[in-house]
Write a structure and sequence with these properties.
Layout: E1 14-15, E2 18-19, E3 21-26, E4 46-47, E5 50-51, H1 52-61, E6 67-73, H2 77-84, E7 92-98, H3 104-111, E8 119-123, E9 126-127, H4 130-143, E10 147-153, E11 163-168, E12 171-177, E13 188-196, H5 217-227, E14 231-235, E15 240-241, H6 245-258, E16 264-265, E17 269-270, E18 275-276, E19 280-282, E20 287-288, E21 293-294, E22 298-300, E23 305-306, E24 311-313, E25 315-317, E26 322-323, E27 328-330, E28 333-334
C-alpha cells in the first residue's frame, strides 16, 4: 500500500473555536464474515451500493465533520481507491496503515500524530442514527467531559461479546472488555463510537496486550477514568452492527425498507416473463434470465448473472456472482 496520504478537501468543522476531527478504524479482517471477505475487507462490504465504512462516514459528515483519519489494513488497496472518488469534495480523508491487526488502542495510536484536539472515534462496522451522533457531540460539549461513550442496554447473556460499563449518576465509573456474565458490572454495552478529548491519547502507550494479543481501547479509557474522571455517555436504542452474514442481510433489508436511498433498477438485461418486486436494488451490468421472480427485499450487486426460472427473495447477491437456472434463494447472502 502507498504511503499514508490525504484526499483533497477542506479543514474540519469548528468545535467551540477549535477544529474537530473524526477517526474511523477500518483495518479489521472480518473473520466471521468469511468467505464474503476473501476478496475485500469488512469495511468495503456493501450496504445498498455503498461500503459500510462510507455509511458510517456519512453519519459523521451529517454532523459537520469534514476531516477524517481512516486507519486501514496494508492489504486493503480498494478502500483508498474508492474514496479517491468520494462524492463529497469538501471532506478530507487521510489514510493511515495499521501493519498488523493489534486492536483498537494500537490503531488509534497510529492515527494519534494526526489528531490535534477533540475528536470522534468510530469503528467501521457500527451504524447508529445521525441524531445519536449529534447527541454525543452536544453532550460532550455541554458537560466538559474528557470522554463521551455511546451506550446501549443489552441482554446480559451478550456481555461477554462487548465492552461493558458501570454507570452511576451520569458517569462511567468503570469499563470492562468482554467480561464473563457473572463478572459484568451491568448490562450496559459501550458501543465502538466515542467522543474524546486529546487527553486519552496520553494513555495509549501504557496499554499492555490482552491475553488474545490485542491492545484494548477499554484499558486506556479505564486509565482515564481512574486518573482524571469526567467520562460520561449517551444511550441509544438503535444500532446496526456488521458481524456476520445474517447481519449483512438485515442491514441491507433495513436500508431497502427504511434507508431513504433512491431506488436503482439498472440491470443490463431482463428476460421475458421475469417479475421484479420492490423494494429492490439491482446494479449495473447484471443480466437476468427469463421466468424469474426477483424480490421483494433483494439487493443484487453489479455484474451478476442470474439464470432462467430463478426465485430470489429476502437476499443479497454480491458482485460477479453467477446463479444457475432454477435456483431458489430465500434469506441468504450469496457470493
Amino acid at each position: 500500500m502507498a504511503t499514508p496520504g490525504c484526499c483533497r478537501g477542506s479543514l474540519s468543522v469548528a468545535w467551540g473555536g477549535r477544529e474537530m476531527q473524526a477517526v474511523i478504524l477500518a483495518a479489521g479482517k472480518g473473520s466471521r464474515l468469511h468467505p464474503l471477505t476473501l476478496n475485500r475487507s469488512k469495511a468495503m462490504i456493501p450496504i445498498l451500493g455503498k461500503p459500510i465504512v462510507e455509511r458510517v462516514l456519512e453519519t459523521l459528515v451529517q454532523n459537520g465533520i469534514d476531516e477524517v483519519v481512516m486507519v486501514v489494513s496494508q492489504h486493503d488497496g480498494e478502500i483508498q481507491q474508492h474514496f479517491q472518488h468520494y462524492a463529497r469534495p469538501n471532506v478530507s480523508i487521510r489514510f493511515v496503515v495499521q501493519p498488523e491487526r493489534l486492536g483498537m488502542a494500537n490503531a488509534l495510536s497510529l492515527a494519534a500524530p494526526h489528531i490535534r484536539d477533540t475528536f470522534i472515534l468510530s469503528a467501521c462496522d457500527n451504524l447508529t442514527p445521525p441524531e445519536h451522533v449529534a447527541e454525543l457531540l452536544e453532550t460532550h460539549r455541554r458537560t466538559g467531559a474528557l470522554a463521551t461513550l455511546s451506550l446501549m442496554e443489552i441482554d446480559r447473556s451478550l456481555v461477554s461479546r462487548t465492552g461493558v460499563v458501570e454507570w452511576c449518576d451520569g458517569q462511567v465509573r468503570r469499563i470492562v472488555e468482554k467480561p464473563r456474565p457473572e463478572e459484568a458490572p451491568s448490562n450496559i454495552s459501550s458501543l465502538p463510537l466515542y467522543v474524546f478529548a486529546p487527553d486519552l491519547l496520553a494513555y495509549l502507550p501504557e496499554v499492555k496486550p490482552s491475553p488474545r494479543g490485542e491492545y484494548e481501547l477499554q484499558d486506556a479509557i479505564q486509565m482515564l477514568i481512574e486518573r482524571q474522571g469526567r467520562v460520561t455517555g449517551v444511550f441509544t436504542r438503535d444500532r446496526l452492527q456488521l458481524t456476520n452474514a445474517a447481519d449483512l442481510l438485515a442491514i441491507n433489508r433495513h436500508y431497502l425498507t427504511h434507508g431513504g436511498d433512491s431506488p436503482q433498477l439498472a440491470p443490463q438485461s431482463v428476460g421475458r416473463h421475469t417479475h421484479l418486486i420492490t423494494p429492490l436494488r439491482i446494479e449495473e451490468g447484471t443480466v437476468i434470465g427469463p421466468g424469474c421472480v426477483i424480490g421483494p427485499r433483494v439487493y443484487i450487486e453489479r455484474n451478476c448473472r442470474i439464470g432462467a426460472d430463478v426465485l430470489i427473495k429476502d437476499a443479497v447477491i454480491l458482485r460477479d456472482t453467477v446463479i444457475e437456472d432454477g435456483r431458489q434463494i430465500v434469506g441468504e447472502v450469496v457470493s
